[in-house]
Amino acid sequence: MNKKSLAFLLVLVLMVALAAAGCSSKPSEVKKEEPKYPTKQVDLIVTFAPGGGNDLVGRAIGEYLTKEWGQPVNVINKPGGGGAIGVQEALKKSKPDGYTALVAGVTNSSALLAGNKGLPFTMDDFKWVSKTVEDPLAILVKADAPWKDLKEFAEWAKNNSDQLSYGTPGPSGIATYATAEFLDAIGADFSKARMITTTGGADTLPKVAGGHITMCFLSVSEASSMVKAGKVRFLAVTSPKRSQFFPDVPTAEEMGVKNLGVKWWLGIAMPAGTPDSIVKKWDDAIAKMSKAPAFLAKLKTFNAESSYMNSADVNKLAKEEGVKLSTMAEKKGLRK
Q1: What pLDDT is attached to residue 29?
Q2: C-beta of residue 216 within 8 angstroms of C-beta of residue 205
Q3: Is the peptide bond before 96 cis (omega within 30 degrees of 0)?
Q4: Are the beta carbons of 265 and 133 closer than 8 angstroms?
Q5: Looking at residues 177-187, what average pLDDT do you find?
Q6: How many Å apart are CA 114 and CA 100, to the nearest integer?
Q7: Secondary-structure percent of the chain, ordered helix, strand, coil, rounded to 5
Q8: How many CB atoms lie within 10 A of CB 251?
Q9: What is the reported pTM?
């Protein structure tokens, strides 16, 4: 056999081998293309009534994602039970197919579970997508309250715990945990303070302004309108840094009150069992949204701050926070 014939034969053998290798590929080895998502309306459940912080953030998210994905992301309000009704609707009664999501945060996850026994869901039912917003909590009193700053108020509260009242939606409300933590930090007696149950910030603030409630903890965004109207007054924010919207208001630590870690935040969760590919699509979109000028401008209209955290990190945050608040609830007798 001459060299030319031998070369031809080698090329032919190689071609046959390559063809055989291609035919022997198993179907499982062929990468499947992810199905298109979303292809229809997505329901975004808010567990509180329209107009509050959860609702405003949810609508801002829905508006952005509708434009981003070209499919409607509609907010549906399911209030009641301190958030429990909406959580159950979104995480237990809905299919884990990506077409129902929940505006979730400390209020309707870790705080709610810490303060209540026998709820029809647990933290394991939350498949966390992202954190979107973190709003500093603030200590508020009526505009003409006699204390000029937090130091004076803390001294009064320490010596007059039995005369102090605070507004909160109930034992599992984030304001309750924040009040307990604050009173412990200043050496006041939380057990002597009087809880005034309200339906939320819109009910609490007028009662503080009228002197029917001594003080309250609310997020900066929720309290901002009444503060600007001169009805109530910020004594301090409990975040590590001052609010960008109220830079003249000191932090609690600046005023000598340290270790206040209870905070208000919101994110997105989905039912357990939702495909990871869908969660990733949401997480990627929210990461992009957190820096989008249009979304930031929308948050600014109600004085909220973008604070993105990915799926793994927000899952860790929620679980650690749940342990902390559950311990506090047991210690203070708040668990019911």
Answers
A1: 47
A2: yes
A3: no
A4: yes
A5: 97
A6: 25
A7: 45, 20, 35
A8: 19
A9: 0.83
Q: In this structure, what are the phi and psi dihedrals at residue 174, rounded to the nearest 5 degrees?
A: -60, -30
Work out the average pLDDT over 314-333.
95
CB 262 within 8 A of CB 137: yes
* pLDDT-wise least confident of 10-14, 57-61, 147-151, 239-243: 10-14
For residues 135 and 302, give the distance between their C-alpha atoms in angstroms, rounded to a whole number.
11
Q: What DSSP character marks residue 124?
A: G
Asked whether 137 and 218 are in contact (CB, 8 A), the reply is yes
**Any idea what the Cα angle at residue 58 is, between residues 56 and 62, rounded to 5°?**
120
153, 215 in Cβ contact below 8 A?
A: yes
User: Between 3 and 237, whose confidence is greater?
Assistant: 237
How distant is the alpha carbon of residue 246 from its chain centre? 21
Residue 277 falls in which region: left (phi positive, over 0), alpha (psi -120 to 50) or beta: alpha
Which residue, among 89, 102, 4, has the nearest Cα to 44 in the 3D structure?
102
Give the Cα-Cα-Cα angle 238, 243, 247 (nearest 5 degrees).
115
Which residues of the chain form beta strands (DSSP E)?
Answer: 42-46, 73-77, 100-105, 126-135, 137-142, 165-168, 194-197, 215-219, 232-237, 264-271, 306-309
